Amino acid sequence: MMYYSRKKLALVILTCFIGLLLCLPNFMSAPSPKIPWRQIHLGLDLRGGSYLLMQIDLNVLTKNRLQTLSDNIRQTLISKDLGYKDIHSSDKDHTISFTLRSPSEKDAVLKALKGMPKAVINEFSISDAPNDQITLTLSEDAMKQRGSDAIAQSIEIVRKRIDATGAVDPSITRQGEDRIIVQLPGVDDPERIKKLLGTTAKMTFHLLDENATNPDFPPPGVTFMPMMEDPSKKLPIRDHIEVDGSELTNASAGMDQQNGEYAVNFQFDTAGAQAFANVTRANIGKPFAIVLDNQVITAPVIKGVIPGGSGQITGGFTVQKATDLALMLRSGALPAPLKIIEERTIGASLGEDAIRAGAISLAVGFALVIVFMLVFYGHFGFYADIALFANLILMTAILSLFEATLTLPGMAGMLLTLGMAVDANILINERIREEVRNGRTPLNALQAGFDRALSTIIDSNVTAFLSHVMLFIFGTGPVRGFALTITIGIVTTIFTTLCLSWMLIIRWYAVTRPKELPV
Amino acid sequence: MLGRPLLHLVPHGTKINFMRGRFIGLITSAVLSIASLILFFHPGLTLGLDFRGGIVVEAQTQGPADFAKIRMELNQAHISAAGLQQFGAKNSVLIRLDAPKENNAEATQTLINQVKQAVTSAQDGTKIVRADAVGASVSSELFRHGLLALGFSLLMIMLYIWFRFEWEFAISAIITLILDLTKAIGFLVITHFEFDLVMVAALLTILGYSTNDKVVVYDRVRENLRKYHSMPIRELIDMSINETLSRTLATSLTVFLAALPLALFGGASLSGFAWVMLFGIVVGTSSSIFIAAPLLLFMEEGSLRRRAKKIS
User: Fold this and answer.
1) Where are the alpha helices (DSSP H) in A268-402?
2) pTM exceeds cut of 0.95
3) Is residue A6 over pLDDT 70?
4) Is B116 exposed, middle or buried (CB count within 10 Å of its CB: 0-12, 13-18, 19+)?
5) B 201-260: CB under 8 A from A
6) Where are its TM segments located (chain B) (predicted)?
7) ipTM reported for the complex, 2 dp
8) By the CB < 8 Å criterion, does A368 face chain B?
9) Which residue, among A64, A80, A76, has the nearest Cα to A126 in the 3D structure?
10) Is the pLDDT of residue A213 over 70?
11) CA-CA 20 to 30 A from A490: which of A84, A155, A356, A469?
């Protein structure tokens, strides 16, 4: 224990030197793009920016799934010439049920249902009640899978939409089963992005039912939908989707040549173009509504066949609105609406203030601890101070290596670590003092002091380590940053105390061979 | 170069009879903790945005903020129950609102926009520096996670001490930690610092720090149990505390000194955290001496002794 070789000491000092090098990237920009330049990222609370936590509306997903299945069942039964009554779906129990026309057809109906595509029928369990009712229940697993797929798909779409706004360095991550975290550094007014992400952008083309006039009593298969520009005006839209916006291949904002209004130009794929041509051919002279998320953008009268699959939407857009609509159409519709359930925006100036306050606190706290150690522990306190300094460097180095995000609580964590860091030195020094008082020789006192303090040091640090690991696991956002800095701090503290400052003391002893220890 | 220390914290050979004050210590601690518990239920913690849910908007006005005008603008926008207060500097305004009753994302979005609008139109050149909204479901989830973190930490600490020491040590430590924790919560109620995730971090830090302190004293008690077979436990504990007193005070002071600047210059968002930390350091240090050790004494003396013999 007592004789550390020069080699070992050199290794420890080298580690600290490497730490110093790893700290450098935080203070200057990369000299060459080839050099890996890892640095600590500043959290949104220090640099300003927006944080959005969004949750996918799984109810809508279920509803859509049940709707599609109901349609499928209807078509299957009709094609097999089997009768049914009262088909209805329940969002609450995740079921679809209908009544048979006659009990004798039960086997045929069940056979027809089981003949539906495997991918469809595997998601459901079928049960038949004695009163000729058949119920299909959506399975939990299938819904979970769909929710998970929907989140993955949503993340892609969210990324496309945010990238198109030119936001710098955005971070989009999944959280749990149904959530997405979006972090936008430097964006301190997230209005536009919130609007972009809050729009499902499901675009569909419908015909109107011109006989329906009373919005309070819509005929079956018709829904009165508000106009986007003037929600008090409602149009009778047929539920049947003539052409689906998911068949678009491209959309861009432009100018309407005739009246100079901003417009969105779009282009269908082959199947979409075919459907579009057919509908326009069959309905010349009738209005054709373009619906976005249950709002009618526009409902122009069809003037002639549109064969090429390209079209234009006008609806009193501003340039921003036209650009955003084109963007949303290009990026595709979200599988279900995303709701913003947590939002935090911090202005850049507030972040700067926080950094300044944190840096001042850090510097003053550091200075106070250094002076304290010199006053109360003299020579050995000086070694503790060297260790403290190395500790600060190593902590910064490891945080840089991890490319960790430094938050305001994280800075507080660093400060507290610095306060606790000298504890191990204090423990050793106090022990040495006791051993000296007990009349041991300097060498014996050093040895015994260190050995006895060691188990205490380990015990006290492991408990602190455990509670901060808990904090890291259960904490979110800035609190995790706090837990991370302290956890790293505990590790670097052990290293700098047990290796660096202790080795320095041993070297000092080996070189000077004092008759008495300065404790 | 540098020689001996200029000062010693505790004079050599200190022999304070701490155990004589054990009842006073325990009773004082129990009374303070019970008072804190009462405060916890009434009036209760000031919950921060994280746990309460709702909206907070912070704005910076050019020149001193005109609260009357801002209040008028908010009234005109039919925004009621808006908590309006100065936040640090004279030109800084903080507006708090509960989450809209409908508890849906859209209503919250509308509300936050209305508040921003009202504040910026009240005075020219007003800038929104912070705008946070937390939904009710998220806040209750955060609250649950915060409590879980505290609970699991306590459990882990107890298991570790049990593993490294004996169950008597683990139980006295946990009782002391719970007493410390309740006092910190009482402090939060009295000072009206908002209880949010950052405060959970502060409480956990206090737990970690306080445990650390107790472990050092316990370590010495265990060592002395093995060394002095016939010394009465009471004397032995007193001796152990005296022997570790210098270290206990020194570490408390360094942590205190490190956290003090944060409380003084850390800015509005972190000074609350730092004050709670400072309070926790004082409580944690005193409880190591006056609570954790006496509790150990109350535990079955015989069994401690027996086991110590067996180990040595």
Assistant:
1) 270-282, 319-331, 348-401
2) no
3) yes
4) buried
5) 201, 204-205, 207-209, 211-213, 215-216, 219-220, 223, 243-244, 246-247, 250-251, 253-260
6) 21-41, 142-162, 169-191, 197-217, 249-268, 274-299
7) 0.89
8) yes
9) A76
10) yes
11) A356
